[in-house]
Design brief:
- By secondary structure, this protein is an all-alpha fold.
- The protein is 67% helix and 0% strand.
- The chain is built from seven helices and no strands.
- The longest helix has 20 residues, at 66-85.
- The protein is globular, with a radius of gyration of 18 Å.
- The two termini are 27 Å apart.
């Protein structure tokens, strides 16, 4: 237990020192949605006014945003860990019905909307000392 807490503290410290932002996972989803809405002609200024976020969040590139880089690094690190454990395999057997896939998708969308309505996820709320 102490080792896990120490590892999490070290990772968080490295992230704060290197990116200047806290640990979060859901902010890039809102940014990506804002960029998607911009494809339909809505300006970044209008999105920034609606979301109460700086306009620059919606005009910079994906890898120019610190939390997006963190999420990418988490996924890459997880993939490397799974490959090193030898547990990575593809399985194309689909044992679920279309109704179950629809429920999975609905659950994922509701979780995503919930994190955005709550202004963040539990990772950011637990590990980030400021908001």
């Amino acid at each position: 237990m102490r080792t896990s807490a120490l590892v999490i503290a070290i990772i968080f410290g490295v992230m704060m020192a290197s990116t200047g932002s806290g640990w979060g996972a859901s902010t890039p989803f809102g940014i990506c949605f804002g960029k998607l809405v911009m494809l339909f002609g809505i300006s970044a200024n209008d999105i920034a006014n609606y979301t109460l976020r700086p306009e620059v969040m919606f005009t910079t590139g994906f890898f120019d945003h610190a939390i997006s880089v963190q999420n990418f690094a988490i996924m890459l690190g997880t993939l490397i860990a799974v490959l090193l454990m030898g547990k990575f395999s593809f399985s194309f057997k689909i044992n679920h019905s279309a109704k179950q896939f629809a429920l999975f998708a609905l659950g994922g969308l509701l979780m995503g909307f919930g994190t955005r309505f709550a202004n963040g996820c539990n990772v950011g709320a637990l590990f980030t000392p400021y908001r």
